[in-house]
Amino acid sequence: MTDLSLAENPAAFPADAPLSVSSGGAMGGKIGTSVLLRYGTGQLGAQIFRDTPAVLLPLFMTTMLGVPAWLAGLVVLIPKLWLIACDPLVGAWSDRVRKVHGRTPFLAGGAVLTSLGFVALFTMTESSSPTLSAALTCFLFFLASTAFSMFSVPYLAIAAALSPDPHERTRIMIFRMIFATFGVLVGVGVAQPMIYWLGGGEHGWTVMAFTLGAVCLVTMLVTAIGLARVPMIEDNAEHGSLFSQLKVIAGNKPYLILVLTCLIQNIGQASGYTVIGFVFLYALEAVWIIPVFILVMSITGIAAQPLWFALSRRWGKEKTYVFASALWALVTVSWFWMRPASEVLVTLPGVGALGIQHLLVLLRGAIIGVTNAAFVMLALSMLTDTIDYQRRRMGSANEGVFAGLFSAVEKLSFALGPVIAGLVMSAFGFVSSKGGAVAQTPHAITGILLLYSLIPAALQVVSLVVFSRYRVAKD
Predict the structure, then answer these.
(1) What pTM value is reported for the model?
(2) Where are the domains of the chain?
(3) Per residue in 255-272, pLDDT tens?
(4) What distance lies between CA 351 and its chain's CA centroid?
(5) 247-253 LR contacts (CB < 8 Å, sep 24+)
(6) Tell me, which fold does domain 34-230+240-467 have in CATH?
(7) Each residue of 420-456: pLDDT tens digit?
(8) What pLDDT digit, counting tens, does each position of 158-170 carry?
């Protein structure tokens, strides 16, 4: 068991204390592109599972199963409350067995079970009663989310063990962010339009579920199998109980501040994610533009990665993070004034007729893509810095527990977001339906726009106030 006194006396274990470090990727300077690609690919499937249920499950429940909006929010919340305990437990478990088995069994098992759970969510939840449908959805989401923990927690932990160089860890997160962007493109930009292209009924939802489930399976297995023999930083510490490891983590102030920052920030983002389908359906009245919007956001996000990498090296990760977050909040506020387009300004081949509101949506999407790609990537990069800080202080890092707790808090925030969205939508008079979408009042649409604009922007600002306390000692 790690001596807890070291947390209060870092000098008791020098920063250069010997670690057992594998040769090759972990200590060989620049990480090979092949390794980065194999690592990043898994995020495509992981992002689909993270985003598609967040965006479409409330829409599916309220328009196909007849579940009230407030109840739909609870359906998402309950399984994710369990993950507050599940994710750290998975992290601690993977830390204990990694010397013998590595993290591959968790990654591979999680990939298979997560994909099956994704398909079940949209194909096995219909019943004669909306309440029973909500209960079935909650149960299946509980199982699928638990399976996803098996993949997502070790996956995040691996990033901190691939390199001791903070800038190399930023490169790792850039590749992860690129594939995350592709995941958003598929899981959000393609999924909902695919459903409507196929008629918007049960057939459309089923085809979407099987198609995206297959993508999840293949991409997540690429990472699970592809990283099995990649050298990583190791330590010889004996890992104690989860409780004892959490006590050590409690002494890592930069980590705790970063976790709280991301919790507040992600609650706002999750509120917006929950209603993105509603925004394009009811506020803009142009579901067909979603693929173009996501494509623009994806292209600008990927193209901006070299810029953010250069700025993070020049300004530091912290200042770059604040700049990108503040710009994101400023643009997000402007969504409140979104309206349906009433004129045709330009017609683009393969896209169609675009009005001023359509063009403003695409412009916002471009800026959101650039800024979101920065602060999400940098938050994960700073997470690896806090783990490295722990390694330098204590001689071991327990990456799995760090990643598990961080992942649990992230999932908690993305569970609270739908609850907030459901309560706000119900308060503003949103009407649920069964078998398809129905018209909503202007008041209900105002509630949807609040959730997509002012609420997430305000929480982003609050998170930056918390983040102002973040400091990591370099040595």
Answers:
(1) 0.73
(2) 34-230+240-467
(3) 999 999 999 999 999 899
(4) 29
(5) 247/4, 247/7, 248/2, 248/4, 248/7, 248/390, 248/394, 248/398, 249/390, 249/398, 249/401, 249/402, 249/405, 250/7, 251/7, 251/8, 252/7, 252/386, 252/389, 252/390, 252/393, 253/471
(6) Growth Hormone; Chain: A; (1.20.1250)
(7) 998 999 999 998 887 777 889 999 999 999 999 999 9
(8) 888 888 888 898 9
